[in-house]
């Protein structure tokens, strides 16, 4: 089986994004080995950023350390040195050999290990504009600047993304307007149309719009092609997240391919690619 990089359907290529740097469902999150593998192969891969006490960013999803690491408490109250001493946890909660990385650690690795020209690393900022100050932005720019051409910065707070990206002019950006409970507010075709129009206005320079795949399919069920609307504005669409591969998610993936999404985020790229062949 070939490496799980993308699916092709009716002449359209849809990339498989390695969510939290997982190639397969059994992988732990955010290991350097998988990130470098993805970049070497030319994959789309995603990691998350959380601000720590020394005003840099840690490669972690949660604001709390307890679930994903051997630490405890808030990332925002933990120093860089303390974070580097912590180990990541596997899917079963057992500590693994890999340690927590900071953004600068990851960027140094990318400088030292050439990436495939098609590789793209998504930095998903998990906080909001209130967590950014001058030092945090400066530290972000110093880390990302040398490897920005291999990255895209995304998040749900357009203001935060704009503030960080302004310090790294060569860095592309994306925007995720999918907030918790949004589907409860989208009931009619006009609701979905207005939602997409608002997202495009809010993030005029974002090249990728990230949407909960269930929202994409819900719009489709109402006769609204939000993928087509975003494409018409010159943007691309990432549909997130296919977590487990089963009959239902395979059927959903086939519909997403028919709608011509540009990328599907999944915790199991290898399993999903295998199920689609």
UniProtKB/TrEMBL annotation:
Q: Do you know which SUPFAM superfamilies this protein is assigned to?
A: PLC-like phosphodiesterases (SSF51695)
Q: Where is the GP-PDE domain?
A: 14-276
- Where is the chain membrane-spanning? none
* PROSITE patterns (alphabetical): GP_PDE (PS51704)
The cross-references to InterPro entries, in alphabetical order and at most eight, read:
GP_PDE_dom, PLC-like_Pdiesterase_TIM-brl
Gene3D superfamilies membership: Phosphatidylinositol (PI) phosphodiesterase
Q: Which Pfam families match?
A: GDPD
Please give the name of this protein: Glycerophosphodiester phosphodiesterase
State the organism of origin. Ciceribacter thiooxidans
């Amino acid at each position: 089986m070939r490496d799980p990089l993308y699916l092709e359907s009716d002449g359209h290529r849809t990339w498989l994004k390695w969510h939290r740097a997982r190639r397969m469902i059994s992988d732990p999150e955010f290991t350097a080995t998988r990130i470098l593998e993805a970049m070497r192969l030319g994959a789309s891969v995603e990691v998350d950023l959380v601000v720590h006490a020394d005003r840099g960013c840690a490669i972690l999803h949660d604001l709390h350390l307890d679930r994903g690491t051997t630490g405890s408490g808030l990332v925002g109250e933990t120093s860089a040195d303390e974070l580097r001493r912590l180990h990541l946890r596997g899917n079963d909660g057992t500590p693994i050999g890999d340690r927590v990385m900071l953004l600068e650690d990851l960027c140094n690795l990318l400088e030292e290990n050439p990436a495939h020209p098609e590789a793209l690393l998504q930095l998903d900022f998990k906080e909001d504009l209130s967590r950014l100050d001058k030092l945090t932005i400066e530290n972000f720019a110093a880390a990302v600047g040398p490897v920005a051409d291999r990255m895209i910065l995304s998040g749900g707070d357009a203001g935060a993304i704009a503030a960080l990206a302004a310090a790294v002019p060569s860095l592309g950006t994306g925007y995720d307007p999918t907030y918790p409970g949004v589907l409860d507010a989208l009931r009619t075709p006009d609701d979905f149309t207005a939602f997409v129009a608002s997202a495009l206005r809010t993030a005029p320079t974002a090249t990728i719009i990230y949407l909960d795949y269930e929202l994409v399919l819900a719009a489709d069920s109402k006769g609204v092609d939000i993928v087509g609307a975003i494409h018409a504005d010159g943007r691309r669409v990432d549909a997130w997240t296919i977590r487990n591969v089963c009959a239902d998610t395979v059927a959903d993936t086939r519909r997403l391919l028919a709608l011509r999404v540009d990328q599907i985020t999944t915790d199991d790229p290898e399993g999903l690619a295998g199920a689609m062949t």
